[in-house]
Amino acid sequence: MEENYKQPIDMSKLLGKLLPYKKLYAYVMGTTLVAVYLIMVCVPRYYTSGVSLAPETSGTSISGSLESLASSFGLGGSLAKMNSSDALYAEIYPEVVASKNFIVELLPVEIKTRKRDENIQCTYYDYLMKHQKAAWWTYIIEGVKQWFADDDEAGGKKSAKISVFDHSKKQEEIFEAVQGLITCRYDKKTDIVYIDVKDQDPLVCATMAEVTCKKLQEFIIKYRTNKARIDYEYYQKLTEKSKSDYEEALKKYASSADAYTNTVMATYQAKVEALENDMQAKYNIYNAMNSQLQAAHAKLQEATPAFSVIESASVPTKPAGPKRMLISIFMSILSAMVLTGKLLLKKEA
C-alpha cells in the first residue's frame, strides 16, 4: 500500500519566481505603509488609566484551604456567592458600572484637561458632548446623518437634565460612549476588581478612573448598609424626641421643686413627686433609646464594607494607542502576502 506524502515547499524555487517582482513588492508595501500611516494619523490618540481594588466579601467565611482551592479553579467568586446572602457580589460589579443608573452619577463630575492649548474645564457630560476629537471621515458621516435626523435627534436638546427614564438619542449615544470608555472586570481567581478608563486626555483619564472607583465604593456601601442605616436613622429620631421630652420634664420638675421648697402641704408635695416620677420615666425612655441608637450605630459600622485599593489611578505619560507604526507595518506585510498569492495564482494559470 502506497503512502501519500505531501511534497515540501521549495522555498528557493518560490523565491525565484517572486524575485523578478521585487520592485513591485517595494512599491506595494511602501505605498501601503505610507497610506495606512497617514490614515492612522487622523485617528486621535488615547490614554488609559486603571484602578484595582479588593472588595470585602459579606457573609460567613469559608475555610481558607477550600477558598484557596476554589480560587485555583476560578470558582472562588462562585463559592463566595453561595456562601453569602448578599445579592450584590463582586461578579456583578461590571454590570453595575455599565448600568445607566451608575453612568448618570458620573456625567456631572467636573473635569479639567491637561493640554494647555485647550484649557477645558467642564462637566464630563459636556466634555463628551462637545470636546471629543474624531477622524475627518467621522465628521462627514455625522454630517450626512444630520440631514436625515429629526430636530430633537439632531440637536440633542430634548432635556437639559440627563434622565435614565426619558432621554434623547444623543444622550443615549453618550451612555454608549461611556460604556466603551469606562470598563470594569472581575478576576475570579484573585477576587480583584479592575476599573479601566480610556480617554483622549491623560488627566481626564486618571480623574475619571479615580471618580469611578469612589462612586463604585459609595454605591456598594449604600447598598450593604441600607437596612442598618434606616434603623440607625429611626433610632436617632426616637432618641432626639425622647431627649427633648426628658429635658422638658426636667425643666418642669426643677421649676416646681424650687417654687414649693418651703411648702409642707401634701398637695404640693404630691405634685412635685408626680413631676419627678414623670421626669424619671422619660429619662429611662431616653436612656433606652440612646442604648438602641448606639447598638444601631455599631451594626451600621459592622455592615459597612472595607475596600483595599491595590493600585490607585495615575496620570499616564504615554498614549496607549492607536499603534500607528505597528498597524502600518502589519498592513504592509498583509499587502505583501496578498500580492504573493495573486502572483502565484497568476503563474499557475
Structure characterization notes:
The chain has 349 residues and is of the alpha+beta class. It folds into three domains: 21-43 and 322-349, no CATH class; 47-224 and 307-314, Bacterial polysaccharide co-polymerase-like (2-Layer Sandwich); 228-302. The chain is 62% helix and 10% strand. It has 14 helices and six strands. The chain has helices at 11-18, 22-41, 64-72, 76-83, 93-98, 100-106, 124-130, 136-148, 151-155, 169-181, 202-224, 226-259, 266-303, 324-348, and strands at 47-55, 110-112, 121-123, 182-187, 192-199, 307-311. The strands form two sheets. A four-stranded antiparallel beta sheet has the order 4-5-1-6. A hairpin with a 4-residue loop joins strand 4 (182-187) and strand 5. Helix 3 (64-72) packs across helix 4. The radius of gyration is 35 Å and the shape is elongated. The two termini are 33 Å apart. Residues 59-76 and 155-159 have low confidence and may be disordered.
Helix content: 55-70%
Q: What is the N-to-C succession of helices and strands?
A: HHEHHHHEEHHHHEEHHHEH
Instruction: Please mark out the parts with pLDDT under 50 across 5 or more consecutive residues, or reply none.
Output: 59-76, 155-159
Mean pLDDT: 81
Q: How much beta, percentage-wise?
A: 5-15%
Under the CATH scheme, which class of the largest domain?
A: Alpha Beta
Task: Provide a brief overview of the structure.
The chain has helices spanning 11-18, 22-41, 64-72, 76-83, 93-98, 100-106, 124-130, 136-148, 151-155, 169-181, 202-224, 226-259, 266-303, 324-348; strands spanning 47-55, 110-112, 121-123, 182-187, 192-199, 307-311.
